[in-house]
Design brief:
Layout lengths: L1 H30 L9 E6 L5 H10 L6 H10 L7 E6 L4 H10 L4 E5 L6 H10 L5 H8 L2 H6 L15 E5 L4 H15 L10 H17 L6 H13 L7 H11 L10 H4 L23 H8 L8 E6 L4 E5 L2 H16 L3
Antiparallel strand pairs: 1-2, 3-4, 5-6
């Protein structure tokens, strides 16, 4: 009788062991296999603070793994720490391969090039179009007093300090983080510019001047000469008379489209930014300048130029002159050549 009971218990244990072995075989062979061998790569995000259990469940819900339970135990037994972020993964990968990527932290980034000379609002729209951040959120973050105070910016926004460059943004970055990243980049990239003011007020004036130079020059080699014209005018209390500042009023303050040409009425718009009406710099930057314009504004060559005029639209070259008569003559010569077909 006892032998019969022992045999039955042994047989039951054998069945249990066999069942466990089959279950293990399933997990090791079947659950480990790709959920869909023909699948394409997709983006999968792991929110900050996610538990291993929730990540495993999300992988299964996205049909990236065959079993949430297997993914969970595979990560636990492997002592894996899965990092938050956005990853490019595929159901054609094994569960271990997917978990390995999430453990590595090799995230997918948005590569975005921000051109020189964009205003704050245009930068916001540029980033929004690239899927990085909501334009409104970006503008609000760039006007955050705490952020501006952190960098010693005396203006009402980060206009001028959102450094134009190629960035790699993570998918979960918040607007404030992006603004801080771009401003930190400004100070890092401009650290080597000679004669760049380090005090907040002096730097703000320099960046304001550079933002105008940025919008005026077309050929890099002429940026310093244009900066010298504006610097000379500032020294003698002469108005900068920059068309770029009037365009800023029309497009950024009035919210209108970019004008094909400025009229006498445009030049008479009453605004502190209208450098045709007032001498000195406008209240703040009108664009986000790059290194060329910043360096030119910080180190303008010594010239006697007070005027410049575009005289070669094809190449973007200007003529630089010392007096109004020379300026007018340069314009007359340009229009005569144009009429003659040169």
């Amino acid at each position: 009788m006892k032998r019969t009971v022992v045999k039955r218990v042994s047989l039951a244990l054998l069945c249990v062991v066999a069942a466990l072995a089959l279950l293990s075989l399933y997990y090791l062979v079947i659950a480990e296999r790709p959920a869909d061998p023909d699948a394409q790569e997709v983006l999968f995000s792991v929110p900050k603070g996610s538990s291993l259990l929730s990540i495993s469940a999300s992988l299964a819900e996205a049909n990236l793994v065959r079993s949430a339970e297997y993914a969970y135990f595979r990560a636990r037994l492997g002592r894996m720490f899965l990092k938050a972020g956005t990853y490019r993964v595929s159901a054609s990968w094994s569960t271990s391969e997917i978990l390995g990527l999430l453990e590595s932290g090799k995230q997918e980034y948005l590569r975005v090039t921000v051109p020189e000379g964009l205003s704050l609002s245009k930068t916001a729209r540029h980033l929004s179009a690239a899927g990085v951040v909501d334009a409104g959120d970006f503008v609000s973050a760039a006007s955050d007093k705490d952020v501006l105070s952190r960098f010693g910016i005396p203006g009402t926004s980060a206009e001028g300090f959102l450094f134009p460059d190629t960035y790699f943004f993570s998918y979960d970055m918040q607007a404030r983080e992006i603004v801080v990243l771009m401003m930190e980049n400004f100070f890092r990239k401009t650290a080597g510019i000679e004669n760049l003011p380090r005090d907040g007020a002096g730097l703000y004036r320099l960046v304001t001047l550079a933002s105008i130079v940025e919008r005026e020059y077309r050929i890099e080699e002429e940026a310093p000469l244009i900066a010298s014209v504006f610097t000379n005018r500032l020294k003698i209390g002469m108005g900068l008379q920059s068309c770029a500042t009037v365009e800023y009023i029309i497009t950024e303050i009035q919210g209108k489209g970019h004008p094909n040409r400025l009229t006498t009425q445009d030049l008479a718009i009453k605004s502190d930014y209208n450098t045709y009406l007032w001498a000195g710099l406008p209240p703040g930057p009108i664009s986000n300048p790059g290194l060329v314009a910043l360096s030119a504004a910080a180190n303008p060559p010594r010239t006697s130029y007070l005027y410049f005029r575009l005289t070669d639209p094809a190449s973007g070259r200007h003529s630089f002159t010392n007096s109004l008569d020379e300026h007018v003559e340069a314009g007359r010569t340009f229009y005569l050549k144009r009429a003659a077909g040169y």
